[in-house]
Design brief:
Elements (H helix, E strand, L loop, with lengths): L6 H10 L8 E4 L3 H5 L1 H11 L4 H4 L1 E5 L4 H10 L4 E6 L5 E6 L2 E6 L4 H8 L6 E4 L20 H6 L9 H15 L4 E5 L6 H16 L2 H9 E2 L3 E4 L7 H11 L7 E4 L3 E5 L15 E3 L3 H24 L5 H4 L3 H15 L11 H12 L8 H5 L2 H8 L1 H9 L5 H19 L11 H9 L5 H6 L2 H4 L6 H16 L2 H10 L4
Helix pairs in contact: 6-8, 8-9, 12-14, 12-15, 12-17, 12-19, 14-24, 19-23, 19-24, 23-24
Length: 492
């Protein structure tokens, strides 16, 4: 059994990619999403324009303990890995990725990471560190300076632990060396991610060395970006099947859907790769794209997951094919979501919805309704409640969105009734349990009047009146009856 990519693949690398180590991009977080998304886009760029290889190749950085295993595999494979992409029809395409031509493990050699960022050839430092990695307090919206790892990084005599510790030390060196402007680019699925990154970095710098703040304001840009490509965790079965099919073992294999989207704000005073040549959208304002994705894709996921779970579906790709769910998803977008969106030049929202529905039906993704329902208390206020608020402001029906909320209540109520609410994947579950405990059997009223979650909607009579018949139907006749009622009583 082969443990590295075979000779044929290595020859492909030599044919199209040189082994330059003057990486223009330093990236924190070399997990599956980065390697299916940003590294993929850079791969396309340097394949089409080989002269850009040395300028825009990627040095990947891992700083978490569990990054070490993956980094070792990537090194053993001569920084090569395969990306297997599948569409909703089951068609597969494999691309060998060599744009990540160097990887560093921070705890192994912190100074090497700092020097790489502080090199004159490094023009972008990018991040996929998850929403929690930005260390922003959800309640206050402020950077948490009291986090123990942040406190440790504020001591200049310590080796850095967080991305902020590494970046701050590198910024100090860039200032000392009078290097040209560069970009810090968030590639996380976080709304207005550039602004979130800027707040985090500037807050850390102010506490670390206030003299760096004015330098950073002048020399660093923080563009917003929107990223989209569903990338499931690669399983041992994926690697085994890949080896059987293709004849070599890839321990760094990534699997993803075929769809790819990356939208970046045009806010880059320093050098930046011409990614628009490979399909990346460079725009003046990313926010309309974010709103489209949040309300159609993410809201659609919540709709499909919650209603699908109530109808007995385990997987999203099965639920989205259900006739009632498909009809509700379509009418929700046509009647309630799309009217709430700002027009985007060249974008047809109906076609975008159809594309999302196709993506949900992709069996390769194998996404469970339980996973999509997870953390609904954090998701629903961002994905669905703004649609309801818009519809009520326009004095229009919000019946389809209300069905999502009713399905969410039903999910919580069923777990509460079965004494299993502690098992759901939601940071707010203990609060829901406490509220339901005090509800004297009326969990729906306790649910909908929760101002912390629903804001002004918690006291909106029209919203409550829209929800009540759906809740009664679900209780008395089941979710299927509520779906039929919603479709029959909403003008198309």
């Amino acid at each position: 059994m082969m443990t590295v990519l075979n000779r044929k693949v290595a020859e492909q690398k030599k044919a199209c990619i040189n082994n330059a180590t003057q990486n223009g991009i330093v990236h924190f977080g070399v997990g599956g999403f980065h390697r299916s998304h940003q590294a993929y886009a850079i791969q396309l760029l340097i394949e089409q324009f080989p002269e850009l290889t040395g300028q825009w190749s990627i040095c990947g950085v891992g700083i978490m303990p569990n990054d070490k295993i993956l980094i070792d595999f990537i090194r053993k494979q001569d920084h090569l890995y395969a990306l297997k992409m599948s569409d909703h029809l089951g068609n597969e395409q494999v691309k060998i990725i060599s744009s990540v031509n160097e990887v560093l493990f921070g705890p192994e050699n912190p100074q090497a990471v700092i020097e790489k960022i502080a090199s004159a050839t490094s023009k972008i430092v990018s991040f996929t560190i998850t929403e929690g990695g930005y260390n922003i307090n959800e309640t206050t919206g402020e950077f948490n300076l009291l986090h123990p790892s942040i406190q440790a990084d504020l001591n200049k005599n310590n080796a850095p632990v967080t991305v902020f510790g590494y970046v701050a030390r590198a910024i100090a060196l860039r200032k000392e060396r009078n290097l040209p402007p560069f970009t810090l680019l968030s590639c996380d699925n976080v709304q207005e991610n550039g602004e979130v990154l800027e707040k985090a970095v500037m807050s850390f710098l102010k506490a670390y060395d206030s003299e760096l703040v004015s330098y950073a304001k002048e020399k660093i840009s923080f563009p917003n970006s929107m990223v989209d490509r569903i990338t499931p965790v690669t399983t041992p079965a994926d690697r085994d099947q890949f080896e059987i099919t293709h004849g070599y073992r890839d321990e760094a294999l990534v699997v993803s859907e075929q769809f790819f989207q990356w939208v970046i704000e045009r806010k880059v005073p320093g050098d930046f790769p011409p990614l628009e040549k490979v399909g990346v959208e460079v725009v003046d304002d990313v926010r309309p794209y974010e709103k489209m994705k949040l309300r159609i894709l993410n809201g659609g996921h919540s709709l499909t997951g919650l209603i699908g779970k109530a109808l007995g579906y385990e997987y999203i790709h099965d639920a989205v094919l259900d006739e009632d769910i498909a009809g509700i998803f379509l009418q929700y977008d046509l009647q309630e979501v799309i009217p709430s969106l700002e027009p985007i030049k060249g974008t047809d929202f109906r076609k975008y919805y159809e594309l999302i529905r196709e993506r949900f039906s992709n069996q390769m993704i194998n996404d469970s309704t339980n996973r999509i329902i997870g953390h609904s208390t954090a998701k629903i206020p961002k994905f669905v409640l703004p649609v309801i608020e818009y519809q009520l402001e326009q004095k229009k029906s919000c019946r389809f969105a209300a069905l999502i909320i009713a399905a969410w209540w039903w999910y919580l109520d069923q777990h509460y009734s079965n004494n299993s609410i502690d098992t759901i994947d939601d940071d707010y579950k203990h609060v829901w349990k406490e509220k339901f405990d005090r509800a004297s059997g009326d969990t729906f009223t306790a649910f909908i009047q929760n101002e912390e979650v629903f804001g002004k909607l918690s006291s909106n009579v029209v919203f409550a009146d829209t929800l009540q018949p759906l809740v009664r139907l679900i209780q008395q006749e089941g979710m299927r009856a509520a779906c039929s009622f919603t479709l029959k009583n909403s003008a198309g």
